[in-house]
Structures are given as C-alpha cells and as structure tokens.
Design brief:
Helices cover 37% and strands 11% of the residues. The chain is of the alpha/beta class. The strands form 3 sheets. It has a 4-stranded parallel β-sheet, sandwiched between helices. Strands 8-7-9-10 form a 4-stranded parallel β-sheet. Helix 4 links the parallel strand 3 and strand 4. The longest helix has 22 residues. It comes from Laceyella tengchongensis.
Length: 350
C-alpha cells in the first residue's frame, strides 16, 4: 500500500529502548546508581543515531536515504562500569572495557569481528570458521565447553548463547567472569545482540554502521520481491535432514523464507516438527531447500516425482553458515534464498 511502511521494517522505538530508558537498546547503569541526567542524554544521542538508521530503512523517501545511512549521529563513548541486560534477562556488570573476549557460539564471534574486536578475541569454539582468522585462535570446545580452557585464557568477557549449558555458564559466573547470553530468534533480536555486545565493548559507532549496512541489505531484497503477487509466491519446504524435520511458522528460519518472498508450507506448525513424506506431497511445494547439503536423494525420493519442486528440479542447497547463524551475514543468506526463489528478479538463471 502506497505510503505505508512495510511491517517487516517497523522497528518501534519503545521496543529498542525499554520503557523509562533513554539508553541504547539495553538498560545501562553506572555502578550501583542510575546514570546521571547528563549521561542519559549522551546515551539518548546514541539511541537516536540507531533510530535514524532503522527509520531511514523503514520508509525511504523519494529523495533516498543513503546520506543518513552513512552519517549517523556520533555516539558517546562508554563510561565504565556499566550494567548490561542480556537476552536471557541477566543484569551483567562490566567493570572495565574488555580486552580479552571468549566466544562460545559462531554467531557471537561473527558479530564481535564485525564490530572490530578481532584483536581482543582470545578463544572460540571448534565450530567457528568465519572469518578465517578465527581458525588460529585457541579452541574452548564445541557445544560442550571446556571450563578449564576458558579460564586459562583469562577472559574479561564471555559471549555465550542460550543453547550453551547453563551449569557451565554458572561456573564461569561464579569465577567472576562476566558472561553475556545472546539468544536471537528474529532479525530484531540480531540487532539487539549487536547492540548488547557493542554496549559492553565500547563499539557503539561500529554497531551503528553495521546495523545500517544490514538494514540496507534487507531493504534491497525487499525491493525486489515486494511486488510478487501473493498468489504467485513460491511455496517452500525446508528440509533440515533426510528424516523430514522442517521449520514451523514460529521459527527463525520461517522469517528467512518469508523475507525472501516465499511461503513456508509448514507455517501452520510450530517449532521444528517432523512431517511425513505424504504430507510433503500433499503440500506440493514449488521449491525444496536442503540445509544439509544434498539434493540428489530428494530428487530421487520414491513417491515424490509428482511434487512441483522435484518435477522442475528446483531443489536447492543453502549455506547453513549464512542461514543458521543469527549474525551480521544473515541477509546474505536471505538473498541466496531469494535468488533461488525468483532468479529473474536478481538477474540470475537457475
């Protein structure tokens, strides 16, 4: 509808800066006392800069928004100690600017590097592979974290995830190590994750620019798929593994599919359900996305020869590091999907 801001770009100020706060996405305190009015105003400017960035992307005026995207309000520097509320609701005090950071999840690592914290990273997991520099860092485990190894690296900040073992995180906290839990389940949550890390590490300026870049990527994709009529949008089945686990309508992956202009055939389900082969045939998707790297067995699957995606050989593999990690590259993953859904709109031939 002309003149109306698309819902997928609306970022209400109240949802980014909590009620009663003029801070930067998260409630910040100086020591045990609430920040002074002067300090609140500084953080108000910082929050305003991000609001301008997000607002610029939401409803672009005819004159364009590139100037605003590239010239955000200069944020004030953090004054330590600060108290940050993470995505698990924990209030974490950061006594001084972190100099030694350990990440327990690849998405957190990617955010940290995108914020220019590469020289402060001292440990990551064996699952980390981007950027290439992380391969040289000490490893603290995979999904099972080695507490002793983490402690040996003498971190002054640990970037954890909601999927990490809670007992492990409690051990680290009891040892006096600040632990921030990031747990993004939506695009908006990714921006909050970036903001939380930036607040803790004094990289608000970098966060401003990173969020602006991501929002521009989002807007560019939207511009190419927004005019696809609802009855012409491709029906998509996401196959997580050969046993037919898929993605429900309340999942992060569903948001990727819909943002790329597709319709998730399993949107009526919740979570990560397992469905039958017969159900997929009944849904008759136009496209099947494989997130585990195989297309041949799907194309040759018995009983699926009548499925549109199989008949048209529109079974694709997406890079799971782009689509499964809630980090700075998420819209690269969305674009990859959108190019497969509507190649003609992206100048691609599939």
């Amino acid at each position: 509808m002309a003149g109306q801001c698309p819902a997928l770009f609306r970022m209400p100020f109240s949802s980014l800066c909590p009620q009663g706060s003029t801070g930067f996405y998260v409630c910040i305190k100086k020591g045990a006392e609430v920040m002074s009015v002067k300090w609140k105003k500084r953080w108000g400017l910082l929050c305003l800069s991000l609001l301008l960035v997000l607002g610029a992307v939401g409803c672009a005026p005819s004159g364009g928004t590139e100037g605003r995207l590239n010239t955000p309000v200069k944020p004030a520097a953090v004054k330590y100690p600060v108290e940050v509320t993470d995505q698990a609701g924990n209030k974490v005090t950061i006594k001084q600017e972190p100099k030694r950071i350990v990440s327990l999840m690849p998405s957190n690592t990617e955010i940290a590097y995108a914020l220019g914290l590469d020289q402060k990273m001292v440990g990551v997991t064996t699952n980390d592979d981007y950027p290439a520099a992380v391969k040289k860092l000490p490893k603290v485990g995979d999904f099972k974290i080695n507490v002793e190894k983490v402690v040996s690296l003498k971190p002054d900040l640990v970037l954890a995830n909601g999927a990490n073992d809670k007992a492990t995180l409690e051990q680290l906290k009891k040892l006096g190590i600040p632990v921030l839990v990031l747990d993004a389940k939506s695009f908006k949550d990714i921006y909050r994750s970036i903001a939380i890390i930036a607040t803790a590490t004094n990289t608000a300026r970098e966060a401003d620019l990173l969020i602006a870049k991501m929002q521009k990527e989002h807007r560019d994709i939207y511009a190419k798929v927004v005019n696809v009529p609802k009855d012409k949008r491709v029906k998509v089945f996401v196959e997580l593994d050969p046993t037919l686990y898929t993605v429900g309508g309340d999942t992060f992956m569903n948001e990727l599919v819909t943002t790329a202009g597709g319709v998730n055939v399993a949107a009526g389900l919740k979570g990560w359900p397992q469905v039958s082969a017969e159900q997929v045939v009944k849904w008759n998707p136009d496209i099947i996305i494989s997130s585990y790297g195989s297309t041949d067995q799907i194309l040759k699957r018995q009983g699926w020869s009548t499925v549109n995606a199989v008949k048209g050989k529109r079974v694709y593999v997406v890079d799971p590091n782009l689509t499964n990690r809630p980090g700075p590259r998420i819209f690269q993953g969305v674009k990859e999907m959108a190019e497969q859904f509507y190649p003609e709109r992206f100048g691609e031939q599939k």
